[in-house]
Fold this protein.
Amino acid sequence: MSAGVPIWRCAGCGVAYFPEPLLCPRCHGGKFESGRVHEALIEEVSVIRHMIGQENWQPRRIASVLATGGPRMTVGLRDESGPGATIELFEEGTAPFGRAKSSA
Amino acid sequence: MFQNAAIIGVGQSAYTRRPEPGQTALHFMRDAVVAALDDARLNAKDIQGMAVASFSLAPDSAVDLAWKLGLSLRWLAQDTNGGSAGMSMLGNALRAVETGTAETVLILGGDATGLAGYAKVAANYNTATQKHLSPLGHGGPNGVYALVASRQIKKYGLEKSDYGHIAIAQREWAAKNPYAVYRAPLTMDEYLAAPLVADPLSRYDCVPVVAGAQAIIVARPDRAPKGRPGVRVRAHRASYNYDNQEGDGLQTGISTFASELWQEAGVRPDDIDVASIYDDYPTMVLAQSSDLGLIPGNDLARFCRVTIGERRFPMNTWGGMLSAGQPGGHAGGLNGISEAVLQCQHRAGERQVKAARLAVTTGYGMTMYRYGGTAAAAILERVE
């Protein structure tokens, strides 16, 4: 697990993307500065209660979030955070996850 | 408008939720081809072109299927545009016939993945899904469109029962379609009591995957069976990756071409007699209908409660995929076209819409990351 989620910011127009593009959809520039985004605002949440082809499936929560200064992305939620909450982002493998911000 | 190309035949296989052991997508596709040829009163040797879409062909490709069907062709295409593949293939076939590249083109889609096979397709749909969604346990397209549905409910002030009106009305149509896998009446109480699959979507909001295939034949109008009204395509448009996944998914690629489509067709949304709107989810039926201008005032709630709820507009008259079944996204886009053809030819049996003359059909698909990235639509017309 690593803190934050990778984003790619266009060196030409400054717009950030996830997942990584080849050319910027806005200005079609080909240079990106990679970085990480650490917080996001939850916009919608769903609970996946059934997975086709799976038995003994345990419900999982996913959310559409707006990353701070960055793009919208879909994350797995590791707690009961809901729409309107700001969460901290982390990455497991190549997948983005989120949970309530730690109070530290 | 296509002057030298028309739809002259349609055919389908049986649909089933659970194919028999040994029954593959190829068997269903063969049945659909035989039915379409029979409907068009053509022989296989008359076919000069083929377009095919299926999740189940690999490692074969379109030419291998041509070989298995014994078709020697001079025009061949394989389409990968998911729920809009049917519409995409229709456009390409019309242009191939219109320009004289081929006189007769077979359009074919079918799948028999089974539930486990479909789960693999859904988890590995593209790189973004494989790397960034599947590890979340996102539930395939159900999870993706659950989030889109939440946005739609919030933006348009919808209630859960609004989606129910679409599912219930389509089930009524399905009762009149012998090919539909779900034909028993559905009540609002049953709809609302159905188990949640991915909040807010419940069982009847999610398209059931079936095994099956659809075929359509496009040819010069003079190849149509004698004594049967032809079906001409007044306009066809498609869109691919319309917004780079930067929107909210509540509009589709149809929004980029709808005005052009109507203008070229020379008709208006309120001229339409019957509509086939790609229905993997009621959410996306509303999004496409909105883009097409079929919803007066863009009042989605009223459209559900009154227009559909009170059966004022015939939409997805074969039951839609929500009741008839989705034989893979690819063939799923073809069944709406087939139904529109049957309606315009007044061959839809018990579900015939009186005096149907003009139909709109759509396709929508390829869930790239946050929603679908492909869409297409056509205006079909009965020609005496």
Notes: The CA atoms of residues 12 and 29 of chain A lie 6 Å apart. Chain A has no helices and nine strands.
